[in-house]
Design brief:
It is a single chain. The protein is an alpha/beta fold. The protein has a domain of 121 residues: Rossmann fold, CATH 3.40.50. 29% of the residues lie in helices and 17% in strands. The chain has seven helices and seven strands. Strands 3-2-1-4-5-6-7 form a seven-stranded parallel beta sheet. The longest helix has 11 residues. It starts with a strand and ends in a 23-residue tail after the last strand.
């Protein structure tokens, strides 16, 4: 029996979403569909339209017919994902080390230690309200990272190890090595 997977991208990573398409399109035991914002839809070129649905809100979209959900990006609007994370099997991707702060104890000392990212962390803490919103993210069934450096960083913190998975997204649908012209180097005598 085929598994049905929904992919959600409401924010920025349309190129990564296209990589997902290239992967799952080759999997005969997987049915899939992509739910995207209008902004993301306008940037997509590799995913056929029949696999795409434009949505305005994750919380107002019905995912009950899907066995699992992949949240490609979550930078804001955390509350929009809360019910989904509580009711469905969800893989939430963490793209880079900036989001490793979700796994650290939140304190001014951590912000000071990460002073090169201090302004960014303060923005996340104050404007995006990460201190309270991170509880939503850790409710996801699995947390996926797409770089081994991010995985190592999270493993060093020894938190949520039972939820973290390395997701290999290095997929190439087609690859050709162009034939090079012979280059002759002439050295005067």
């Amino acid at each position: 029996m085929k598994k049905k997977i929904a992919f959600i991208e409401m924010e920025t990573h349309s190129a990564l979403l296209e990589q997902w398409y290239l992967l799952v399109a080759e999997m005969p035991r997987v049915n899939f569909h992509f739910f995207v914002s209008q902004k993301v839809f306008d940037k997509l070129s590799a995913i056929p339209r029949q696999y795409l649905t434009i949505i305005n809100s994750v919380s107002k979209t019905d995912f009950s017919n899907y066995d699992g959900v992949v949240v490609n990006t979550i930078h804001r609007n955390y509350d929009d994902y809360k019910t989904l994370f509580e009711k469905k099997s969800v893989l939430c991707l963490i793209h880079n080390l900036n989001f490793s702060l979700f796994f650290k104890k939140i304190s001014w000392l951590n912000i000071f230690k990460e002073k090169e990212k201090g302004a960014y962390f303060l923005k996340l803490y104050c404007k995006e309200k990460v201190a309270s919103k991170r509880k939503v993210i850790v409710k996801a069934s699995k947390l996926g990272v797409i770089a081994s450096s991010v995985l190592k960083n999270i493993e060093k913190q020894s938190v949520f190890l039972d939820k973290i998975e390395l997701i290999q997204m290095n997929y190439c649908n087609q690859f050709e090595i162009p034939k090079e012209d012979v280059i002759q180097i002439v050295m005067p005598v």
